[in-house]
Write a structure and sequence with these properties.
388 residues, single chain, 5-stranded mixed sheet, Cytochrome p450, alpha+beta, binds protoporphyrin IX containing FE, globular, 49% helix
């Protein structure tokens, strides 16, 4: 039984047209794609499921389509209480105060990447700017040595594009390389620990669950998890923003003329172009939702991108409206026990990346075909731009 087909070719807007239809006519929808899954598109249903980790769990399947070929990657792949020590170990390294230390680093990274693009008069804003930026930032946050930063940038870029192009072999190979890097990092920090207050791997090694150290393989999985959740979304969102600002040159100029508007603009772009279309849960037992029977363990996509355009919550949901009064209700970073741990760092990356792009150009516009992502992301993956 198929209420919608996520494999249909898409444009930047077409999934949202489909989600408007589903929200009003079939809010708990089923698709046969990828072995079959359900999709929630109404804001309340998505927010309730994300907030109810007892009945909607992540340990069976946390994303549609399923991309993990290998072991468990905490904290996302575990349910509380097992999930919590991993989250608790990482959280102090992602507070506003800790994250603020990286602002000059991110600015240098953005300016360095833009130098190269400016020499050419433009380029692919995703491939050359918004994909390498979060990987390099992450490498600094992980205290990787310079030579490792370049390797991570290359392998991360390969993984990112392999997942998006549905290239299973390349995804497996690059994922294995990311695992090797994470494993070597754990071995190295065991021999040469850094201060857990500034180093994620050392913090995970120092953490205890019921008095016991966390298992090494789970620490490796955590590092591998954090790396991937943190790189794809900024790549895609900056791509979607570039398309929007190219189509709305007045808004582009308004933001360039007053950079103090950029943080609010980023919040609205996160709502309008929510880059993670949705993560998944499975019900802990058979349930009935809005009259549809869902069996235990059947994957349910919480479509954050659809919830964020629900007209019941966001007036004129398909429009960019700066400083919406209820923008804090946006689900771009999820909600509940698995809500994004890196949201402060992600916001800083996005703000600095957009500021630098605006400051270093007089204007930019799309000059060729835009390539789009697919589920579980949504938005632009490749955007050729001309700078002037
Ligand atoms: C624009 C950028 C980002 C977006 C839109 C985003 C979005 C999200 C969302 C929607 C979730 C919830 C997943 C779920 O409901 O199952 C999540 C979880 C998570 N994110 Fe982010 N994220 C971003 C960047 C980052 C960064 C930079 C980091 C780390 C440095 C990060 C670390 C995490 C972690 C560790 C989790 C899992 C938390 C848990 O399971 O307890 N994210 N993110």
């Amino acid at each position: 039984m198929q209420d919608f087909d996520p494999l249909k070719p898409e444009t930047l807007d077409s999934p949202h047209e489909e989600y408007h239809r589903l929200r009003s006519q079939c809010p708990v929808a089923h698709s046969d794609a990828w072995g079959g899954f359900w999709a929630l598109t109404r804001y309340d249903d998505v927010a309730n499921a994300a907030s109810d980790s007892d009945n909607f769990i992540t340990s069976v399947q946390n994303v549609v389509p399923k991309v993990a070929f290998t072991g468990r990657r905490p904290p996302l792949h575990l349910d509380p209480p097992e999930h919590t020590p991993y989250r608790r170990a990482l959280a102090p390294l992602l507070t506003a105060k800790q994250v603020a230390r990286f602002e000059p680093v991110i600015r240098d990274i953005c300016n360095d990447l833009l130098d190269r693009m400016l020499e050419q008069g433009g380029g692919d804003i995703c491939n050359e700017y918004s994909a390498p930026m979060p990987i390099r930032t992450f490498a600094h946050w992980m205290n990787l040595p310079d030579e490792q930063i370049e390797i991570l940038a290359e392998v991360g870029r390969r993984y990112n594009f392999a997942v998006q192009s549905d290239d299973e072999q390349e995804t497996k190979e690059s994922s294995a390389l990311l695992y090797d890097m994470a494993r070597n990092l754990v071995l190295d920090r065991k021999k040469n620990p850094l201060d857990p207050a500034i180093d994620a791997t050392s913090a995970l090694l120092a953490a205890r669950a019921e008095g016991e150290p966390l298992p090494d393989e789970m620490i490796v999985g955590t590092i591998r998890q954090v790396l991937v959740v943190g790189i794809i979304a900024p790549t895609v969102l900056i791509g979607s923003i570039a398309v929007h600002l190219s189509e709305h040159p007045d808004l582009q100029q308004k933001l360039r003329d007053d950079l103090s508007l950029v943080p609010a603009a980023i919040e609205e772009f996160l709502r309008l172009y929510t880059p993670y279309r949705g993560f998944a849960r499975t019900p802990a037992k058979d349930i009935c939702l809005r009259g549809r029977d869902i069996k235990k363990d059947e994957p349910i996509a919480l479509v954050y991108a659809a919830a964020n355009r629900d007209p019941e919550v966001f007036e004129r949901p398909d429009e960019f409206i700066l400083n919406r009064p209820n923008i804090k209700d946006s689900l771009a970073f999820g909600r509940g026990v698995h809500g994004c741990l890196g949201a402060t760092l992600a916001r800083l990356e996005l703000i600095v990346a957009l500021e630098c792009l605006l400051v270093r150009t007089n204007s930019f516009e799309v000059n060729g075909p835009v390539r789009l992502t697919r589920m579980p992301e949504i938005g632009a993956l490749s955007v050729p731009l001309t700078f002037s």
